[in-house]
Amino acid sequence: MTAVWGNRQYRIWTGLLLLSVLLVVLAQHVPLFKSFPAWLVLDLSTWLNSVISALFETLRPLGMLLSTLAEMPLAGIRSLLAWAPWPATSLLVILVALYAGGLRLALFAAVALGMVVVMGYWPKAMNTLALVIISVPVAVSIGFALGALAHRLPKIRPAMIALLDVMQTWPAFGYLIPLLILFGFGPTAGLTASVIFSVPPMVRNTLVGLSDVPPAIVESALMAGARPRQLFWQAMVPTAMPQLLVGVNQTTMASLSMVIIIAIIGGFNDLGWEVLSAMRAAELGRSLGAGLVIVLIAVLLDRITRGFAERGGRAISGGVLRAGMVIALILAVLLSGYDLLPGDQAQRLLRRIDGWLLDFVAWSAPVFAVLRNAITYGVMLPMRIGFSGSASPMVWGFALTPAITAAYVLVAVALALILGRRKPMRGIVTGFAALLFWTGLPAFPWPGVFAVIGVATWQKGGAGLFALAMAGLGLAGLSGLWVPMMQSIYLAAVAVLICFVIGGALGVLAAENDRFSAILRPISDTLQTLPQFVFLIPALMLFKVGEFTALIAIALYAVVPPIRYVEHGLRNVRPDLVEAGVQMGATPWQLLWQVKLPLARSSVLLGLNQTIMAALSMLVIAALVGTRELGQQVYVALSKADAGAGLIAGAIITAIALISDRLLRRRVSN
Amino acid sequence: MAKKLTAAMTALVLVGFGSGPMSAAELGAVDEPIKVAMLEWTGAQISAQIAGKLLEKAGYKAEYITAGNYPHFQGLADGEISASVEIWLNNVGEVYPKVLEAGKIEDLGSLGLKTNEGWIYPKFMEELCPALPSWEALNDPDCVAHLASPDTLPNGRFLDYPADWGSRAATIIADNNLPLTAVPSGSEGAMIAELRAAVAAKTPLVMMFWAPHFILAEVEVGWIDMPPCVDQSNEHCIMPPDVNKAVWSGFSEKWPAAYEVLKALQISTEDQQAMMLAIDDKGQSLDAVTTEWIDNNEALWRPWVDAALN
């Protein structure tokens, strides 16, 4: 054990562990340590509101002007798409698909658009498309300008990247109210939220693209006498074009996903609204239909923009494209005014799905009740109220006697010492785990949270990250959201744990078996592009309102990153190293655990990072099934039109996301 | 297209013949569409369509703006939405009272729906808890045991309104010392999904709810006879909520006759519920169902339109 005391790192963490134990013991007698003191809670949201309403009311004329400017082209495109009969619009899209990706993509486009028509979602899909058509160019221009600026001025890059992270992690519902005050009721507020969310990928790709321009190209342009403007537009931008187009692709996808979520404001009768209305009426068939249409459109937009990014299009000649466009226009003029859309038979068919779901619920209720109870009693309650809370006749069927407490302490200490014998850090981690399992995550004494997070952020990320962590925790405490914050962390932590186990296992299987991988990929794609609201209805029927259902909904979405990254990591392990393992006589199991997974470590950690981001982004959606954490606070603020409260709850979620991202990212680079 | 044409012709006819010396109200800006809010739930969509179709009969253009219940009050205050005809005053958030106070919107009085609000349970529960529908059943340990869940042990689980609607049920449970724990439901969809699942799987459930609502046409529920109120305040006592109509403050000046039509508009609970059933259960389109109502009830609405125009 001498090594422990020889190392400053271990000394600090052992000290922290002992401090936390002390705090847990003290918290039973001193209420100050148990819950964040109420006398420290300030009415931050009221202050914030007075500032925001004053500011935004003054800016309002400007906002109204902008909103008029945005809504004119939007109204134009919307009526154009509404006027054009579907065969004409479809023909145009199929031609673009043919141009961008060849025959296969054109065929897919034809089938996808045909399904949109048959299922009866054409007008709504066109409204969604109008929103995307307006928001993508704006986001791409802003993103390109910011990326070029950051490339030009390396000094502002760190600040810019931090800003991008904030834009991507701040829940949109949290800043919807200020936007509504500024722009008034209408699509502009939603479009702005969509632009805010979809600008970052364009900035990042612009930055990467411009930075990766080979110096030789810059030099030869300079040699040829290019002026700065010519250098930029005629040498650097064309060279960076493939990367810029990747940015356009990602921005388009982000924009589409946000346009769906932001439909909560209403006013546009688009696909997102359809999904939300179906969720409101708890109709699975309807929301699944709209969700499927969204997936089809997303895949189509993705493949088309990706086709341009990878090959620059040109699968057919421009002449054919122009001729096709003329035909589409003639078709549009000829057919306009006729009602060519099918009736609502498909919608009625979709309604049958609800009947099947209810039959399934009736048949399977006992099974799912058992599953729900097992996970609630076995995983969720212990993590929420801890061993100390669960060991009661109500929950686990036995009381917390002094003998049991003593046994717990003994086992925990013994386990920590045994595990820490060779690698002291393992012992310390075990100690913290035992302590957390004793109190439950939300009830961990708050000074302990400050201390542990403070030391961790200081060590991994320096003063900047430390300041961010302290500000985030302080904001949660002072605004009276300490408990919801801990509840959020707890819910996200359980979800990440479950996702990582299940997703990791699926990823391993997919890496080993090509057929399994091929089956899994479209499922993963669908889980990620299907609007998250769709998951909620079946989860609710099977598992009832409450945290457990929220957990299932979060897990269904956040399970995709571990599958992808684990598979990717394992498939890219150097074959010679695996071969060496085989030569040494490793069993497949040993090969996996001792060769492949350690080698794929950075990819696996990146997957963990993405799982956490996905879980946190689902918190606000999961609040619709009745949680008690920050996501719910965002809704409460939305309904009260309390801009300040929404911003604060959103800021805390962003802080959690940024801190966990930075903590894990440092690890990766180490 | 054909519909628009009819509306335009109706408008012409009405402009031609309707504006005699007797006219009680000017038509006003007939060329500018009146924007009627289409809120999320079927009942409100029916009311909006009926209002819009009556305005068309009176010679106006109606445009339907799909809108979220909470956000749409801001639009109503700014005039981006002209009218909203089904506002549940028990669920208006905090913008509505502010803009009403500031005179940015005008309350047009009741829509005429006979509403109900209270605690409901799926009908089959009367076998498990014979004392139902009396609230005393919820004091019976055997009955409460059916409702218990891991989150609420040893209490029974009571499914409450979403947290953002406010919780009076928790107050009333406390007032009467009932062994129940109120669990906030998160959203209306969550409440309906649970109710459907409870009926399908015969799992016991007691929840807060309101009428008219389309789900009540689909599943069979009982209303609990509520315990006596501690006092008559909104917090401790559930009363049937008022459902009113409201317009943007500039409405009466811009469309004087339309203002009179909307003021006169009344929809009965029975009619609305029948239409909800046709739409949500039988899968008929909103447009077809409301057009049918307009065609069948001319005797009812013709006097409203005539009074406004003549």
TrEMBL record, chain A:
Transmembrane domains' residue ranges: 80-99, 105-122, 129-153, 173-197, 254-272, 284-301, 321-341, 353-375, 395-420, 432-456, 462-483, 490-510, 530-560, 604-625, 645-664
Domain of life according to the entry: Bacteria
Source organism: Pseudogemmobacter lacusdianii
Localization terms from the record: Cell membrane
Classification lineage: Bacteria, Pseudomonadati, Pseudomonadota, Alphaproteobacteria, Rhodobacterales
InterPro entries documented for this protein: MetI-like (IPR000515), MetI-like_sf (IPR035906)
Domain ABC transmembrane type-1: 125-305, 485-664
Topology of this chain in the membrane: Multi-pass membrane protein
Protein name, entry field: ABC transporter permease subunit
The family this protein is said to belong to: Belongs to the binding-protein-dependent transport system permease family.
Keyword hit for Transport: yes
Main location: membrane
TrEMBL record, chain B:
Domain ABC-type glycine betaine transport system substrate-binding residue range list: 33-295
InterPro entries noted in UniProt: ABC_Gly_betaine_transp_sub-bd (IPR007210)
Residue spans crossing the bilayer: none
The entry's keywords: Signal
Database matches in Pfam families: OpuAC
Signal peptide (UniProt feature, chain positions): 1-24
Signal found in the keyword field: yes
Protein name: ABC transporter substrate-binding protein
Originating species: Pseudogemmobacter lacusdianii
